[in-house]
Write a structure and sequence with these properties.
This protein has a single domain, classed as Archaeosine Trna-guanine Transglycosylase, Chain: A, domain 4 (Roll), CATH 2.30.130. It has a 6-stranded mixed sheet with strand order 2-5-4-3-1-6. The protein has 4 helices and 6 strands.
């Protein structure tokens, strides 16, 4: 199993099944396809508070019309939150065509950024309890002990 560190609230959005694409400046997955543990890094992306799809999803989640939508969000940092299936990776060419997820184009287009590499994720499974873990850059291999802990919690 591999692990991917993602800033909050994006890690929460992936774990909750809202965000199906992780955008990166380069192909960090190579030819790997399979399970990926989603790790909430210690950073928070302030720009996320204005992302229209994330705001919409947060309002749905908490039925919250308050200006600060993310106060109710579990602010879990430095923990593995879920496991998702990495099923495709491609570089977006900057056009309006999104061909990676033909069965869910609206959902895909809400998260995909033009000119980036798209790590396409599906079937997220939240852990029964978040697992503390130290993050890092890239898509890294998990040791057997941590993989077994994750499997026991999904």
């Amino acid at each position: 199993m591999r692990i991917l560190t993602v800033k909050q609230p994006w890690a929460w959005a992936i774990a909750a099944g809202f965000k199906s694409v992780e955008n990166r400046t380069r192909n960090i997955a190579g030819d790997y396809r399979g399970p990926v543990a989603i790790h909430a890094g210690r950073g928070f992306d302030q720009a996320a508070a204005t992302h229209p799809e994330l705001v919409r999803r947060a309002r749905e989640q908490w039925n919250d019309e308050a200006a600060e939508l993310f106060t109710g969000m579990p602010q879990m940092f430095g923990h593995i939150l879920a496991v998702a299936n990495l099923y495709a990776v491609h570089q977006h060419d900057g056009t309006a065509q999104f061909v990676c997820c033909p069965n869910a184009p609206d959902r895909y287009q809400a998260w995909a950024q033009a000119g980036t590499w798209h790590l396409c994720l599906a079937s997220p499974r939240r852990l029964a309890q978040p697992l503390p873990y130290k993050g890092g850059l890239g898509l890294r291999r998990l040791d057997a002990t941590t993989t077994a802990l994750i499997e026991a919690l999904t």
